[in-house]
Amino acid sequence: MGMAQATLRWTADMVRALPDDGKRYEVIDGELFVTPAPTWEHQAASKALFLRLHSYVSAHALGAVFYAPADVEFSAERMVEPDLFVVPLIEGRSPRSWEEAGRLLLAVEILSPGTARADRLVKRRLYQRQGVPEYWIIDVAARLVERWRPEDERPEILTEFLEWQPAADQDALRIEMEGYFGSW
To answer: How far apart are CA 154 and CA 82, in angstroms?
Structure first.
């Protein structure tokens, strides 16, 4: 009998050492996730949402909006690349690294056929465990947004409008879904 082979546990450093081949590599709890480059529609949805988020976040001095590829490393075995994410300002300026930002105000994933399981289950659970206040899953095909918060067992399904209010003393960002999905 041969010895049982140990299961490889991936780390963020191992993922960073992989060649740049246009694919997205992420590691969650030591498991490697690989997805192909995003589609044109995916990128259009990302751009349209980035512009809305950037305008709101900048106007209210809440933080900075980033888009993939950009690493968010929660631990040595938990590194993801959300399609979009918002981090708070550090002493009035945008953070220069994940280590400096340290937390997310919002994470957003735009579904692709090959990412639904990871986005809806694995990443959602990770963001909830990490206490990310809101996680949005944009389903372009169904023209809806699934909103998750840390304590949620089921998503809030948004089809008419999406409101985000990260600071109670500021007006909410309001996105009309018809206008958003019709903008590309």
So the answer is: 20
Coil, strand or helix at 152: coil
CA distance 142 to 130: 28
Give residue-wise pLDDT tens across range 96-110. 887 877 899 999 999
pLDDT digit string, tens, across residues 10-47: 999 999 999 888 888 999 999 999 988 888 999 999 99
pTM, full prediction: 0.90
CATH of domain 38-181: 3.90.1570.10
Nearest to 125 by CA among 8, 25, 28: 28
d(CA 131, CA 66): 19
184/177 Cα distance (integer angstroms): 12
| Cα angle for residues 132, 71, 13 (degrees, 5° grid) | 120
Per-residue pLDDT of 55-105, as tens digits, reads 999 999 999 999 988 889 999 999 999 999 999 998 888 888 878 778 999
Contacts of range 82-87, beta carbons closer than 8 Å, 24 or more positions apart: 82/107, 82/108, 82/109, 82/123, 83/38, 83/42, 83/46, 83/108, 83/109, 83/110, 83/138, 84/46, 84/49, 84/50, 84/53, 84/108, 86/53, 86/57, 86/62, 86/166, 87/63
